[in-house]
Amino acid sequence: MLDLILMIIGGAIIGWVGMKLARGNVRIPTWLTVACGISGVLIGNFLYTLLFKDNTPGFDWWRHAWQVVVAAVLVTAAANYRSKGRVRV
């Protein structure tokens, strides 16, 4: 249960940072930002462990950088998907 709570909190933080790094004016709901952050954490961890060895001692900054980049890509994709069919002014 604690892992789920930490994943939601971490996903919210990483999603927010990803939203700030995303290109353009990103306007998506908070729940979608958190979902993109959680997905960014999961996919970023998977890609990092797939490409690099998972033996870094201490706090792994590169792993979190991968998570934020993946979250930024997902936030941008979600914003573009939500804006399809709408008139931009």
What is the distance, rounded to the nearest whole angstrom, between the alpha carbons of the first and last residues?
44 Å
What's the mean pLDDT score? 82
Q: Give the low-confidence spans.
A: none
User: How many beta strands in the DSSP annotation?
Assistant: 0
Membrane topology: Multi-pass membrane protein
Keywords: Cell membrane, Membrane, Transmembrane, Transmembrane helix
Transmembrane segments: 6-23, 30-52, 64-81
Subcellular location: Cell membrane
Short description:
By secondary structure, the chain is an all-alpha fold. It has helices spanning 2-21, 30-51, 61-83.
Protein architecture, described:
It is a multi-pass membrane protein. This is Transglycosylase associated protein. The chain crosses the membrane at residues 6-23, 30-52, 64-81. Keywords: Cell membrane, Membrane, Transmembrane, Transmembrane helix. It comes from Nocardioides agariphilus. By secondary structure, the protein is an all-alpha fold. It has one domain. The chain has 3 helices and no strands. α1 (2-21) packs across α3 (61-83). The longest helix has 23 residues, at 61-83. It is globular. The termini are far apart. The mean pLDDT is 82.
Key structural traits:
mainly alpha; 3 helices; globular; single chain; 89 residues
Chart the SSEs and their pairings:
Layout: H1 2-21, H2 30-51, H3 61-83
Helix pairs in contact: 1-2, 1-3, 2-3
